[in-house]
Amino acid sequence: MPxxxxxxxxxxxxxxxxxxxxxxxxxDTIVGLADNLSFGPIDPVxxxxxxxxxxxxxxxxxxxxxxxxxxxxxxxxxxxxxRAFWNESLSHRHRKxxxxxxxxxxxxxxxxxxxxxxxxAPCEVVDLSDVKISYRPEQGLPxxxxxxxxxxxxxxxxxCNHDLWDLAEPLPMTARGRYxxxxxxLRSENAPLRVIGRDKLVSAPIDFFDSLLLSYVKANWQxxxxxxxxxxxxxTMDSVFQTCDIVLxxxxxxxxxxxxxxxxxxxxxxIRFSEIRLPGTSG
Length: 283
Known about the structure:
Layout: E1 4-8, H1 11-23, E2 29-32, H2 47-58, H3 78-89, E3 95-100, H4 105-118, E4 124-127, E5 132-133, E6 146-147, H5 156-161, E7 169-170, H6 173-189, E8 193-197, E9 200-204, H7 210-214, E10 222-223, H8 224-237, H9 245-257, E11 262-264, E12 275-277
């Protein structure tokens, strides 16, 4: 039997799965996608063109995976890491198991592009979209099971305790066809954003998250990180992960440039060291 290759569409999820497999004594190989295909051009998915788009449209230069990230998992140029992922994840030497969640726009989009590139090659899928996780607290009453939502949200112990790799099943041809049809449509639309809408990925305009961000801005100064964090938390209340802090920080920057918001600090992407408020307030 060929060796197993686990294909994961976030680097945090790949890191957690790697630790879980190591703890369980398994020697499987894991690859994780650094790129986030829920935003930017996807027809085609060219890492260099996407990096250029991020710099031009989002104003984020030197694109690692998140703002203020330095010296860790995202410090190398994302286009280099993305190319390595595509080369490794499409290897013909392995039995491929893709870890997906239709509740995460990033994971969903990454999986669809991977499946598009896979061609007719077989694969298996661990679909965490509706999987519920039970936690075993050391003290107190057991907590109610909750949706896993994303591999990147699960710690290695939780992955091990639930033997989540046992959920791998061959991807049926009917489901494969639906996924490819969906990605073909999204590629043809080639919108700035892709978000979760009624259990499938849909195209969205670049200002899709503006109203959400503005709902958390007040008359008094707040850290950009506070507003971005509240917007990220808001989406998880609906049991979905729609976007990342890069996109939200970029939209705040755009709203500042349009004078919809007032700003103080040296860089909106330095979200812990910059502040915003509604305009027209003295002091």
